[in-house]
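COMPLEX REQUEST
Ligand: xanthosine-5'-monophosphate
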Amino acid sequence: MKQDMIVILDLGSTENAALARQVRELGVYSEIHPHDITPEELKALPNVKGVVLNGGENRVVDGIAVDVDPAIYACGFPVLAIDHPAAKGERKMDRLPDRAELKEFVFDVCQAQTNWNMKNFIEDQVELIRQQVGEKKVLLALSGGVDSSVVAAMLIKAIGKQLVCVHVNHGLMRKNESESVVEVFKNQLHANLIYVDAVERFLGKLEGVADPEQKRKIIGGEFIRVFEEEARKLEGIDFLGQGTIYPDIIESGTKTTKMVKSHHNVGGLPEDLQFALVEPLKQLFKDEVRACGVELGLPAEMVYRQPFPGPGLGVRCLGAITRDRLEAVRESDAILREEFAKAGLDKKVWQYFTVVPDFKSVGVKNNARCFDYMVIIRAINTIDAMSATIERVDWDVLQKITDRVLAEVENVNRVCFDMSPKPPATIEFE
Ligand code: XMP
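STATUS: Structure written out below.
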């Protein structure tokens, strides 16, 4: 193993993630583990140099008062106990350490080396994946999103053809997105990739369904069924790869490692399809996942793409999805992305997309009355997606996009710009 590690035990503090980042900023890898890790599990982790018990207010996880197994103190690792009066650690503090104090613990007490970088992280993960998987096979749902793409690239590096990727095209992808998944993973990285064209199946199920929650349920449920059908056709699969990243675990608000990303598309597989999970990114933050993808050689467009909801364009083609409006969303979204990239806004704006409502308005085209749809442009900035402000897009850029949408996208006669912050509006319309 290339990297030394400081383990942070999660006793319910909200500061765990910040602390892990501070340790990593010192150049030392750090992982967060649940408070009830056993001494054996702790000792089995690679290259542990020290342990931080991070107490927080009341040391409560999932509403229950918790503490570590006292045998942890006898494992032989230096222990820094923050906000934890009962600890028998070498170091005790009643607040988070400042940078100098953390440095002293990490380097002087634990004698850790500054060997945390993406190259070493990948080498270590590759070795750990090989140890876990052996000669067996891993199945991965490859959506083309950042997390699943980076996991795929990591697993290809570790186990090559023992990885089976399934890409389901549900017809709600952005323009050329499925094609680029096939191009990058099948043609360039030579992955074992099964491409499932489920466009008709999804659009059929969604026909006439206008309620947003119902649409989401159908898309999520159908995704699992398609994936399950593919999984049943394959033989000898023991593992399921997942693009779980650290923020997924934090968001769930539950115990660190026992949790499977609940909003993940394949989280709901039936009981009789039991796989052990391979989750090599589960300790990484989003920016680190992107850096990992770059180091693994994935294209920048794939690694730096903006967030895209699981139900895809399905929640941007408002109300009951129709093919003409879905095409209008897809084409206008492609134009918006092209023009934002030309104006340098793609690197500045957090999320930008178009939506097409399910009503028409009157217009004139070629000297005749027309009755067509409208495209709404949304461009927002946010830190955590909980609140958001709009990007004040330059008028010339908006004009260019409007002109192109009106000239190039069928069935559209009007373009609007959404000025609403979140709250009260949400980022998406459904
Ligand atoms: P809202 O609309 O709630 O969106 O302000 C906040 C962020 O979440 C994304 N989003 C989703 N992501 N599945 C996802 O994976 C979903 O069903 C979903 N709905 C919204 C949205 O794009 C925004 O970044």
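REMARKS: The CA atoms of residues 35 and 68 lie 5 Å apart. Residues 256-265 have pLDDT under 50 and may be disordered.
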